[in-house]
Amino acid sequence: MRQLRRLWADNRGIEGLPVRLVIALVVGVASLSVMMNMLSGISGLAVTELDVRPDPEVVTPGDHTVDIEVVDPDGNSVADATVVARGGSARLDGVETATTDADGHTQLDLSPTLRPNQRDGTVEFDIKPPAGSEYADERENTALLVVDE
To answer: Which helix (H) or strand (E) holds 66?
Structure first.
């Protein structure tokens, strides 16, 4: 019993504990900061979102040849990307696909139609980035507007 009281009254074991915890926390935060800085410098972890630039941007229902340019966020053309056109709120007969050339351009022959009493609609574009690139297409792309005259 006497040893238990002596152990209970002994405060030496906890005197250095708060200081050691603070030191461990500071060292841990510093190490995490260094690791995060190293990771942010690696460009392989980042992906670049692609978009399309249709020309013309607005068409009427019927047959049209639409020039498509695939671009990155800086406006640079992207070669070897596959463009997929499908009906959004405007109708297309099936799905049209084409691959961009070395200049990042391609052409699609589209025949959009609108439903009865529909004044406008869109043709949607998806992009399959070139294989082995850091590009991605996860956001909505620019659409082709179809308006009834």
So the answer is: strand 64-71
Q: Which CATH number describes the domain made up of 48-147? A: 2.60.40.10
> pTM above 0.70?
no
Residuewise pLDDT in 10s, the chain (149 residues): 666 566 566 666 556 567 777 888 889 988 888 888 776 655 555 568 898 999 999 999 999 999 999 998 888 888 999 999 998 888 998 899 999 999 989 999 999 999 988 899 999 999 998 888 888 888 888 899 999 87
Sign (positive/negative) of CA torsion 99, 105, 111, 113? Answer: positive
As a whole number of angstroms, the distance between CA 88 and CA 144 comes to 9
Cα–Cα distance between 142 and 111 in angstroms, integer?
18
Q: Give the Cα separation of 141 and 128 in Å (integer).
A: 12
Q: Are 89 and 36 in contact (CB under 8 A)?
A: no
* Helix or strand run (H / E) with residue 70: strand 64-71
**DSSP 8-state code for residue 7:** H
